[in-house]
Amino acid sequence: MNVHYESKYKKIKRQIKKLVFENAALCDEVAEVQTELCAAREERRYLVKRLLRHEGFENVGKEENSAEAGALSTQKLSQPQKKRGPKKRQRATSTGGAVESERDRINLSEKKFDVDMYGKPKFPINLSNILLHSMGEIIPTNSNFHNEHWIYPVGYMITRVYAHPKEPQRKCVFTCKILNNAGVPQFQIIPDNDLDSVFFGESANVCHQGLLETLQRSLADVTKLPKRVQGEKFFGLGNTTVQSLLQLQDDFKQCANFKRFLSAAEWNFPEDKDPTICYEALQSIIAMSAYHTMPEVKDEPPDELFELN
Questions:
Q1: Mean per-residue pLDDT, 49-68
Q2: 139 CB burial (10 A radius; 0-12, 13-18, 19+)
Q3: Least confident of 69-73, 88-92, 96-100, 195-199
Q4: Do residues 275 and 282 touch, judged by C-beta distance below 8 A?
Q5: Where are the beta strands (DSSP E) in the chain?
Q6: Which residues pair with 163 in a beta bridge?
Q7: In whole angstroms, how far apart are CA 181 and each of 133, 239, 271?
């Protein structure tokens, strides 16, 4: 009897030893994979910086900001302080009133974000529903980059959160960019960590329509998305702060075809309730569709029907 238990003990001991070695090998493999992932992240960050530099917009470093702040403080100290006196009232003429309103509008726009010593905004700028990384540059001489109601600056880039095109119930960060492709604007919608699902075209509506069609295929027939293509709104060009920053550029008034921006009252649907743009609104439609497609649970028949007379 003791021999039997001794053999079982040795067998279990061998199995435990084997599992210990296997566990150690798996730990080594996990550590190696983590090292490769860290190297891949660093390489991806480096490539993104090079891409931004190549496309013409690069974030200002902390050293430049500190140097500018130091120069600004030195300049303030070197200037003599002026004595305060009673303010003189100025009569606002038609021209003066327009200048003052323009200055007030600029000051109002600057209160929403930080600016440098030259009065230029510091990026990125958080605008609640979008994160603005670059305003780009207006090309007034090319009519392809503006129309009656929209302006498409080259180098413009934002990020926003919306549903993943292949998994609609999962959040995904989308990067929206406007590039110059041989004199024709190229719009891009790039989902994060999924370079196989990049949507691009010569208009913002083409990109947005491709995204909505991919979402509809993922949702199958359970949920019907409204056929409301609004590419400019998805790119954040309908944001009032973005429009104010565009108006501050020198080339804004030189766009011959542009007349005015569309107001929020002219939009068909508020953005926070639009399932084609807002992630939360899309999830509400998906939840309601799943609720209506659930099979109805009927009550069981009463026991009296089964009783025999």
A1: 57
A2: buried
A3: 96-100
A4: yes
A5: 125-126, 131-134, 157-163, 171-181, 184-191, 199-201
A6: 171
A7: 20, 25, 30
Using only C-alpha atoms, the chain has a radius of gyration, in whole angstroms, of: 30
- Cα–Cα distance for residue pair 83/305, rounded to 1 Å: 100
What confidence tens digit (pLDDT) does each residue in 174-227 have? 999 999 999 999 999 999 877 778 999 999 999 999 999 999 999 877 788 888
List the structure tokens of 40: 């891949």
Q: How many helices (H) and strands (E) does the chain have?
A: 7, 6
Q: What residue type is assigned to position 171 of the chain?
A: K
Q: What is the DSSP letter of 121?
A: B
Closest CA to 109 of 272, 248, 5: 248
Q: How far apart are CA 290 and CA 282, in angstroms?
A: 12
Q: Cα dist. 294→231, 274, 290, 297 in Å?
A: 33, 25, 6, 9
One-letter amino acid for residue 72 of the chain: L
- Quote the CA–CA distance of 139 and 256 in Å, as a whole number: 11
Which tokens in the block code for residue 251? 């080339």
pLDDT at residue 295 tops 80 = no
